[in-house]
Design goal:
The protein has 566 residues and is of the alpha+beta class. The chain has helices spanning 18-31, 56-73, 102-120, 139-142, 150-154, 170-175, 198-208, 270-283, 299-312, 321-332, 342-345, 347-352, 365-373, 381-404, 413-447, 455-484, 486-496, 502-527, 533-565, and strands at residues 5-8, 11-12, 34-42, 47-54, 89-98, 124-128, 178-182, 187-193, 213-214, 235-236, 243-250, 255-262, 288-294. Strands 1, 2, 3, 4, 5, 6 and 7 form a seven-stranded mixed sheet that branches. A four-stranded antiparallel sheet has the order 11-12-8-13. It has a two-stranded antiparallel ribbon with strand order 9-10. The longest helix has 35 residues, at 413-447.
Length: 566
């Protein structure tokens, strides 16, 4: 069963006093086994966004302790900031990451909200997926009037919180209320403007946000607001679905911003929002100078953005992930106000943590060669074969990228970009198999360390050895299958690619053939140790077929390369 993981992103109404912020995050970390990913304070907003992850029960307990500590340290009667807020812990969403549904997170959020109200005497609203009414799915509805409106709202039954409803008292005056919910991943982003005008920033926000702006009679700025039969303003929708936005002035930076929440990046992506805010700003004589991510961002949002901007430039996207992310950062000005470190801002990079220090692919070229030459039996031929295949894919990718950017071939950039992307995928898959082959060998070695005293232990050892041997046979077969997919790439580059690099395509074919034939030897020697001869014969037959096909295709490519070289 996969590990269940949720993320929690509480927003605390303190962004200036680092001592208070540290005490709150210390309480979160001390409460349970969670991983604190990000602490993002804002001086002008006087608000800190904290991000942590863990298993559901641990996250809920840590969240509760964070709310408790915030209520002890933050006095809302003295709070001033640019961002809307309703309490010491303003909003607290639970977000499904792995092995858990949004509905399950909603149930956890409701239980947490009730506990906060019962044990801490803090009135609590439930929003998004945890809401008890459709209207309260919207955070703005729960937070309407902000902290200052609490005395009035607590006196009106239909505006009262979901848990902890009572007249305004000393406890509420100090801690305010809290909004707890469950939602999908949200990107909080601010677009920096070359103006100090809050009114212009708001106008741009209203142009683009899904809710839009009130319709007015006659003059669109000062005309009378049009209302429907129920007396509610008739809204003119903005251009971006699944977005919420306002404009504000940030004294800390001396600029106005459009502050936006992207509530569904499958509907409106980060780069789409950036482009549209740029368009709307330009239409009002304003320019977007950069972008500020609040909290964390999913990797795919930056990858999609990087590819989008490369496509706009007619540049190949068949480059490394690191380069694509760098293009996204520079294109949207994510480092405009302060440095943007993907390792600290991208949730997947934080969850991955540091890679194991003993990976072969992390060694230098010299280190890899020296490790192979040592007296250790691994890495051996299997890992070398996978690496040869990766080098073959890398050469094909290089030719594709050179062709995509060749002067005079501008109209063909997309064709070669697609080839380069395929080459990148093949290269990464084969690099993974470099370490996977050594891991398969180590699995066999681990079996020999198993006890074999009793008959049960001997039977378990035989079964484990058969399983480990089968896996050690399948891994080099996967190397062969992946290396075979390199041939169409290098063949296309030999035929259609930059003619100055045709020899590189030929070397790529030679490397791919060596990868296939080398891995075949590993398939055969490992299959010989299998007791299940039907499986052994099936695996070796498939290896023989791939080897024969690889030799045939390699000869065709080399013949073509020789012809082109002349």
């Amino acid at each position: 069963m996969s590990k269940r993981l949720i993320e929690c992103v509480p927003n605390f109404s303190e962004g200036r006093d680092k001592t208070i912020i540290k005490q709150i995050t210390d309480a979160i970390e001390a409460a349970a086994d969670v991983r604190l990913l990000d602490v993002d304070p804002g001086e002008a907003t006087n608000r800190t966004v904290v991000t942590f992850v863990g298993e559901p029960e641990a996250v809920v307990e840590a969240a509760f302790q964070g709310v408790k500590r915030a209520a002890e340290l933050i006095d809302m009667r003295r709070h001033k900031g640019a961002h809307p807020r309703i309490g010491a812990t303003d909003v607290l969403p639970l977000i499904p990451i792995a092995g858990i549904t949004l509905e399950e997170c909603a149930a956890l959020a409701r239980a947490l909200a009730e506990r906060i109200a019962t044990e801490l005497d803090i009135p609590t609203y439930c929003y998004e997926a945890a809401a008890f009414t459709e209207a309260r799915r919207n955070l703005a509805v729960c937070r309407a009037g902000e902290y200052e409106a609490l005395p009035e709202k607590l006196a009106i039954p239909e505006k009262a919180p979901d848990f902890g409803a009572r007249p305004f008292d000393e406890r509420i005056a100090r801690a305010g209320a809290t909004v707890v919910g469950a939602r999908d991943f949200l990107i909080a982003v601010n677009f920096n403007l070359n103006t100090t005008s809050t009114r212009r920033a708001n106008a741009i926000a209203f142009d683009v946000r899904e809710k839009g702006r009130p319709m007015r009679e006659g003059n669109p700025i000062v005309g009378k607001v049009v209302k429907d039969a129920e007396g509610n303003p008739v809204m003119l929708p903005g251009t971006l679905k699944a977005t919420k936005a306002i404009g504000w002035y940030i004294e800390e930076y001396g600029i106005a911003q459009v502050s936006m929440n992207l509530t569904n990046i499958a509907i409106t992506s980060l780069h789409t929002a950036f482009d549209e805010v740029c368009r709307a700003a330009e239409a009002r004589g304003v320019r977007v100078t950069g972008t500020e991510i609040v909290g964390l961002v999913p990797k795919r949002a930056l990858i999609e953005a990087g590819r989008h901007f490369l496509h706009k430039q007619h540049r190949s996207t068949g480059i490394t992930e690191e380069e694509i992310v760098r293009i996204a950062i520079k294109s949207m000005g994510l480092d405009d106000l302060r440095p943007f470190d993907p390792k600290q801002k991208v949730i997947e990079y934080l969850l991955e943590g540091e890679q194991p220090k003993n990976r072969l692919v992390d060694l230098t070229v010299q280190g890899f060669a020296e490790e192979t030459a040592s007296e250790s039996p691994a890495p051996g031929g299997g890992s070398i074969s996978a690496y040869l295949g990766a080098l073959g894919a890398a050469l094909g990718t290089m030719v594709a990228n050179l062709s995509a950017h060749k002067a005079g071939w501008d109209e063909r950039w997309k064709e070669f970009s697609d080839y380069a992307e395929e080459g990148q995928h093949l290269m990464q898959e084969l690099l993974h198999l470099v370490d996977e082959d050594t891991a398969a060998f180590n699995r066999i070695m681990a079996v020999f360390a198993m006890p074999k005293t009793t008959e049960e232990e001997k039977a378990a050892r035989r079964e484990a050895l058969e399983e480990a041997t089968r896996y050690a046979t399948e891994v080099p077969l996967r190397t062969m299958q992946c290396a075979l997919r390199v041939f169409p790439l290098v063949c296309a580059m030999a035929e259609e690619g930059n003619p100055n690099s045709v020899s590189d395509a030929g070397v790529g074919a030679l490397a791919a053939r060596s990868a296939v034939l080398g891995a075949r030897l590993n398939v055969r020697i490992n299959a010989a140790g299998l007791k299940d001869r039907t499986t052994a014969d099936r695996l070796t037959a498939e290896a023989d077929r791939i080897a024969e096909e690889a030799c045939r295709i390699e000869q065709e490519i080399l013949h073509l390369v020789e012809q082109k070289i002349g």
